[in-house]
Amino acid sequence: MYCKQILYLSAVNILWAHWQEPEKFIPERFLKGKDTIEKNSFIPFGGGIRFCPGKHVAVAALKMLMVSLFEKYEVELVEPNKPLKTVFKLGNTCQEMKVYLTSKSIS
Ligand code: HEM
Q1: Structural domain spans, the chain
Q2: Ion transport: present as a keyword of the record (predicted)?
Q3: Distance (Å) from CA 52 to ligand 1 centroid
Q4: What share of the chain is helix, strand, coil (3-state, %, to 5)?
Q5: Which of 4, 13, 23, 65 is the most buried (most CB within 10 A)?
Q6: Pairing relation of β-strands 91-96 and 85-89?
Q7: In the chain, pLDDT over 70 holds for what percent of residues?
Q8: What residues flank ligand 1, with Cβ below 6 Å?
Q9: Whole-number Å distance between alpha carbons of 87 and 91
Q10: Which of 13, 52, 90 is the best mutation target for the ligand 1 pocket, counting ligand atoms within 8 Å of the beta carbon and taking the most?
Q11: Distance, CA of 103 to CA of 88 (rounded, Å)
Q12: In the chain, where does DSSP find H-type helix?
């Protein structure tokens, strides 16, 4: 018999003890540099010996996706004030996010 344990990392990453307005999407908070972020306060890839070995592949792929998208399109939320619909599946997954895409080559 064995027992599975799953850490609720999404909750760890939004602790009031570490972040101001943790529920808000403020990516600029990461621009201040690594030294301003408290150790183990943001661990989307886990930690310790079971740390995600795919982290660098995932980050590189996501950066390429973002650059390809924003290079070619203006992206605007259809309903900017509507809260995101998310569901918890090991992490929080966005279920729906409607956006307008405008080709930069046309405008
Ligand atoms: C945004 C993308 C990803 C996120 C957020 C993510 C997150 C995680 C997390 C939280 C864990 C568990 C760490 C723990 O148990 O403490 C994990 C484990 C793992 N991840 Fe990822 N991961 C991502 C992408 C990837 C990719 C692209 C690969 C492979 C190419 C990968 C391969 C693995 C493997 C093999 C483990 C198990 C490690 C072990 O148990 O020793 N992950 N990941």
Answers
A1: 1-52, 69-107
A2: no
A3: 4
A4: 30, 20, 50
A5: 13
A6: antiparallel
A7: 98
A8: 9, 44-47, 50-54, 57-58
A9: 8
A10: 52
A11: 33
A12: 9-12, 55-72
